[in-house]
């Protein structure tokens, strides 16, 4: 059974930091590129970070460059999103996605709220 389970979200003050986690199971993790997306009501889902199966290549949305860092541990089947200098506009549900071998899997997401 394929599962992607996100965690690590919460309420954070502007300027703070968070680390989001995505635990994968049920598929050949290292064969899949992983991405983090975020969704807010009334807006299109935004891809914020991408990492290849080996972790050798990473791409970020312009809106998060320099503040977000994606990484993965293939031995633990985990992908991470480190977020620094959080802004109110980072408030969203953050979801991880696995894409590869003709398949596409999504987690349920974790809520990040940035507010004082």
Topology of helices and strands:
Elements: E1 3-7, E2 10-12, E3 18-25, E4 33-39, E5 46-51, E6 58-60, E7 68-73, E8 78-83, E9 92-100, E10 103-106, E11 110-114
Description:
The chain has 116 residues and is mainly beta. 0% of the residues lie in helices and 53% in strands. The protein contains no helices and eleven strands. It has strands at 3-7, 10-12, 18-25, 33-39, 46-51, 58-60, 68-73, 78-83, 92-100, 103-106, 110-114. The strands form two sheets. Strands 2, 4, 5, 6, 9, 10 and 11 form a seven-stranded mixed sheet that branches. A four-stranded antiparallel sheet has the order 1-3-8-7, with no helix packed on it. A hairpin with a 4-residue loop joins strand 7 and strand 8. The protein is globular, with a radius of gyration of 13 Å. It starts with a strand and ends with a strand. The model has no long low-confidence stretch (mean pLDDT 96).
Mean pLDDT: 96
Number of helices: 0
Proportion of beta-strand residues: over 45%
Structural class by secondary-structure content: mainly beta
* Major sheet summary line: 7 strands, mixed
Beta-strand segment tally: 11
Question: Could you say which overall geometry the principal axes of the C-alpha atoms support?
Answer: globular
Helix content: under 10%
* Uncertain regions spanning at least 5 consecutive residues: none
End-to-end Cα distance: 40 Å
The radius of gyration computed from the alpha-carbon positions, rounded to a whole number of angstroms, is 13 Å
Order of helices and strands: EEEEEEEEEEE
């Amino acid at each position: 059974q394929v599962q992607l389970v996100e965690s690590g979200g919460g309420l954070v003050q502007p300027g703070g930091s968070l680390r989001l986690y995505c635990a994968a199971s049920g598929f050949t993790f290292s064969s899949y590129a992983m991405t983090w997306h975020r969704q807010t009501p009334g807006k299109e889902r935004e891809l914020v970070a991408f990492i290849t199966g080996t972790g050798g290549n990473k791409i970020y949305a312009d809106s998060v460059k320099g503040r977000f860092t994606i990484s993965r541990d293939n031995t633990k089947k985990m992908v991470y999103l480190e977020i620094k200098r959080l802004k109110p506009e980072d408030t969203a549900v953050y979801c991880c996605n696995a894409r590869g071998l003709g398949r596409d899997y999504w987690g349920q997401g974790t809520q990040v709220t940035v507010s004082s």
